[in-house]
Design brief:
The chain is built from 17 helices and 16 strands. It is an alpha/beta fold. Strand 12 and strand 13 form a beta hairpin. It binds ligand P71.
Length: 465
């Protein structure tokens, strides 16, 4: 059969609260045109993030009841440890409350002034934790990863030529480890090939530099390898995931993505001395090593989620439903990052709202209109999130791409929700020339996108600029 169905039945549901466009106009005004300041109850379809927003299975909820809450040596920890070890092969498995807590511990150990951490593309919390330690976070994406409309199989790869030059330039002694983020979130959820991971490992090993994976979306990445890379079509996703981890010396993981839970993460590694330091830090900031920052029940839910994520019926449905949204938009000429990634569709706002210059935030204009038109919450990834002011002139320096991300929570929305999202976006696309630009009226000095306040520009306020 051609139709790919949701490989689950729905046992428990949450109502969606319906609002009118008129209500949403008022709500958005009160939220200062920033979707982070909306109440979730005022949102009809929430595509802000795929992180921590998954629907858990009946077996995961059963695990929640079954969780062992012993302070030390909980049986839930041993189930969690065994599952993660079987998947990753790493010797030391250290639970944390989420991904960034694993990053904080890792870079407190290996970071510091004068050190450099290369990555295909750092996610913003990873970059923040590297920089907080005093080290420098350096992105080494391939040129094809930076072209939104170019179709290629592995746009998430790290640039091996640039990595070799980087090691020569900075010196292996100043690079305590290198990271590869799978899939590459900041570049559109694009996958990294096995060949790229293997060759990066070879190059790093020759220089005595360990490789760590940022493994949040490892299963989606493994699925892409199975379907796009020669030699992998007959392997199971689990075998492919194990091979990916076999080239690494450790990983950080936000279980809020591919472990299908609402909270959790871990840090894993082979090195005994590093693990000892990590556990000592863990006790100070997170908790005792057999629970980290989590309850026993959370560890049960993660172990169960890691089994479920490797189900190929689930992954086929997952990747296909993101593609389905991408196809609905592409067919009508809406510009998006191609090909669709694993967890989200990214609208190319520079082309969608070509009349709005980057300093008037074209992505924010689309985000606001998707909310008022259809109650859909998305997020700007462009000049609002990454714009910096030139200290000399005070002018905004924009990143290369202006994107709007529509991230799909796992197992939460059905095909008709996606059809509705396509309909709303096409309605806004038809009226795109009338979208106003926006000005920021209040902002914080760092990570301004979370709390900034905006106002739409009218003809009068634009002339006044
Ligand atoms: C996403 C998130 C969640 C998020 C975090 C911060 C700002 C906005 C949204 C989190 C990631 C990620 C990668 C590749 C590490 C983390 C941190 N992503 N690496 O995409 O995508 O994990 O949230 O559990 O601390 O919406 P954490």
């Amino acid at each position: 059969m051609k139709t790919i169905i949701e490989p689950f039945k729905i046992k428990s549901v949450e109502p969606i609260r319906f609002t009118t466009a008129e209500e949403r106009r008022r709500i958005l005004h009160r939220a200062h045109y920033n979707p982070f300041l909306l109440r979730a109850d005022d949102v009809m379809i929430d595509l802000l993030t795929d992180s921590g927003t998954s629907a858990m299975s009946a077996k995961q909820w059963a695990g929640i009841m079954d969780g062992d809450e012993a302070y030390a040596g909980s049986k839930s920890f041993f189930r969690f440890e065994e599952t993660v070890r079987k998947l990753t092969g790493f010797k030391h498995i250290i639970p944390t409350h989420q991904g960034r807590a694993a990053e904080k511990i890792l870079f407190s150990i290996v970071g510091g002034k004068g050190k450099f951490i290369p990555n295909n593309t750092h996610f913003d919390t990873t970059r923040a934790n590297v920089e907080f330690s005093g080290a420098e976070a350096v992105d080494l994406p391939t040129p094809e990863g930076m072209q939104p409309d170019l179709i290629a199989d592995f746009k998430g790869n790290i640039d091996l030529g640039k990595l070799a030059a980087f090691i020569r330039d900075k010196g292996a002694a100043n690079i305590p480890l290198a990271m590869i983020t799978v899939t590459n979130n900041s570049e559109g959820g694009q996958p990294v090939s096995m060949k790229n991971i293997r060759e990066a490992k070879k190059l790093l090993a020759r220089n005595g530099i360990p490789l760590f994976l940022d493994a949040c979306r490892f299963a989606e990445n493994a699925y892409f390898i199975k379907h796009r890379e020669r030699g992998y079509s007959r392997k199971t996703v689990e075998e492919i995931a194990r091979e990916m981890f076999s080239y690494a010396d450790g990983c950080t993981m936000s279980a809020k993505k591919d472990a299908l839970v609402n909270m959790g993460g871990f840090l894993a590694m082979n090195d005994d001395a590093m693990a000892l330091q990590a556990r000592n830090l863990l006790i100070v900031t997170e908790g005792f090593p057999t629970y980290g920052g989590l309850a026993g029940r959370d560890l049960e839910a993660i172990a169960q989620g890691l089994d479920e994520i490797l189900d190929e019926h689930y992954l086929t449905y997952r990747i296909r439903s993101v593609q389905y949204l991408g196809e609905g938009l592409t067919r009508a000429g809406v510009p998006i990052v191609q090909p669709p990634g694993g967890h989200a569709i990214y609208i190319d706002a520079k082309r969608f709202a070509a009349h709005i210059p980057p300093h008037e935030y074209p992505g924010q204009a689309i985000v606001c209109e998707l909310y008022t038109t259809g109650g859909i919450r998305s997020v700007e990834i462009g000049s609002v999130m990454f714009g910096k002011y030139d200290p000399a002139t005070g002018r905004l320096i924009s990143p290369p791409m202006e994107l709007v991300r529509l991230a799909i929570p796992r197992r939460v929305y059905t095909q008709s929700h996606v059809d509705y999202v396509v309909e709303v976006i096409l309605d806004v696309f038809a009226r795109r020339a009338s979208l106003p630009g926006y000005a920021i009226t209040e902002e914080a000095p760092v990570l301004r996108h979370f709390t900034a306040k905006f106002a739409p520009l009218t003809k009068r306020t634009r002339r006044g600029k």
